[in-house]
Amino acid sequence: MIRFLLNDELRHEDDLDPNLTVLRYLREQRGKTGTKEGCASGDCGACTVVLAEPHAGRLRYRAINACITPVAALHGKQLISVEDLKQGEALHPVQRAMADMHGSQCGFCTPGFVMSMFALSKNTEQYHREEALEALAGNLCRCTGYRPILDATAAAMQQIKHTDGPVDAFDRQADETLERLRAIAADDGSLSKRDHQGYLPTTLDEVTDCLAANPTARLVAGATDLALEITQQHQALPTLIHLDRVEALQTITEGDGFLDIGAAAPLTDCYDALATAFPDFGELLGRFASTQIRNRATLGGNIATASPIGDTPPLLIALGATVRLRSANGYRDLALEDFFLDYRKTDLRTGELIERVFIPLESKRRLFAYKVSKRIEDDISAVCGAFAIRLGDNGRRVDEARIAFGGMAATPARARACETALQGAPITQASLETACAALDGDFTPISDFRASREYRQRVACNLLRRVFIRIAEPRQAVMVSDYE
C-alpha cells in the first residue's frame, strides 16, 4: 500500500500496478483530466504537476513530469494538480493572471504552465525574469509565442508578493499538511498487482537485501530514463525497487578533499555543491533538461544508464571521480572511467547498485565543460567535452590535463593521446595544434541523426581551442580563429 495526499484528501492505494504513472493515475483512476499527455517522455511539460513533501522543517514544492513519474513516488507526499488550485469560487492568482494576460489560446499546454508558475510562486519571494524563464523552460507552447505567459508569470508574482498573509489554501494549511505528511512518511510502502511488484525500502540494507532477493529487479531513482521503457516502448517491468525514500542515498557532503554525493540525490539538490566547486559544471546542469526533469533525475541514474551522450559522465571522468558500488556482500570503489565497458554496458555486477559518487576537489585544477546540441536547452548532446586543467608557470604551461568526451565513442571516454600531448606544454598556438592533431586520433565517432562523424571531430577540436582561448584571455597570449 502507498499513502499520500491528493490535494487535501488522504489516499490509501493498494491495488495499483507499479508500472502506472502519476499521469495515468490522475486521468484514469481519479478522473482529473486537466493534466495532459503531450509526449509521454518528459519533454513538453503538458503533464506538469507539483509534489509537496517535508524538507528542513517545512514543505518543499517541486514541479515534476507526471507522464514519467511512477505512482509509487507519491508515497508520503502531497500531489497537487491544476484542478486543486481553485480557491473556493475564485481562481488561484497564477490562473487568474494567465486568463487576464491572454496566456492561453488552444489551452492544451496551459495546465502545465500554470503548475510550473505555481511551483515558482512557492519557491521564490520576488519575481526575477531569469528564474521565471528557467521555471517555464520545460513547458512548450505552440500558440502564444510565450510573451503573454511570461507577462502572466510576472503579474502573478507581483500580486503574490504584495499579498499580506497566506496567499492560498496551501499556505493556510501548510502546518497541518506538514504533520500529515510526516505521519505518512513513517509508514512502509509497497505496490503489488498481478505479477508486478514495487518495493519502497527506506534503508540501504533494505535495498541491498531486496536486490539480492530479486536480482532481475530494476532500480528506480528518478525514472526519467527508465520510465520511457513503459511509456514509449510499452513494456511492463515486473519488479521495481524505488530509491527515493532512502535518505542515505541522497546526502551531499564535502570533506577530506572530496565532494561526496549520494547516487539518488536529485540533480536539483546537487546543483549548489557542483556549481560552487566547478562553475562550468553548474552551467552544464543549467542546460540538463528542464526543471521538472532535474527535480527527479539523479546523478547516479545519469551514470547508470550508461548513455554515450549522458551529460555528467564526461565531466566526472575528467575530474577523476570514483563510484562506490554496493551489494549485500559489501562495497567496492571503482574509477568512473573504468565503470563503462561498452555501449550501455557497465561493470555493475548482479545485486549491485551505485551508492555514492566521490569527486576530488583540487584548488589548482580548473574544469572547462561544454555541451554542443541542436537546441541550447532541453536537448541531448551531440558532443560533450570536459577538460580538467592544472596550470603552472603562472598560467603559461599545462602541468596536468584530464580530458573526456561524450558522443565521440560507444562510451564516455578519455582523450589520452591529447592529454599526453598537453602534458607540460606551453599555452601557445603550436601546442594547441599538436594537441588537436592528437585528439583527432583519440576517437572514431559515428554519424547519426544528431551529427556527422566529421562534425563531431571538428567540434571536439574546436572545444579544445576554446579552452586555450579562455586560459589565455587575461594575457591575450593566444589568438585562435574559427573555434565556433
What would you say about this model in short?
The protein has helices at residues 22-29, 93-100, 110-123, 129-136, 147-161, 169-172, 174-185, 204-213, 227-231, 267-277, 279-285, 291-294, 299-304, 312-318, 336-339, 416-422, 429-440, 453-472, and strands at 2-6, 9-13, 48-55, 58-65, 78-80, 189-193, 196-200, 218-220, 239-242, 252-255, 258-262, 322-327, 330-335, 340-342, 345-346, 353-360, 365-372, 383-392, 397-406, 413-414. It is α+β, with helices and mostly antiparallel strands and 484 residues long. Strands 2-1-5-3-4 form a five-stranded mixed sheet. A five-stranded antiparallel sheet has the order 10-11-16-12-13. A four-stranded mixed sheet has the order 6-7-9-8, with helices on one face.
Describe the overall structure.
- There is one protein chain.
- With 484 residues, this protein is α+β, with helices and mostly antiparallel strands.
- Helices cover 33% and strands 23% of the residues.
- The strands form five sheets. It has a five-stranded mixed β-sheet. A five-stranded antiparallel β-sheet has the order 10-11-16-12-13.
- α2 crosses α5, α3 crosses α4 and α17 runs antiparallel to α18.
- The longest helix is centred in the C-terminal third of the chain and has 20 residues.
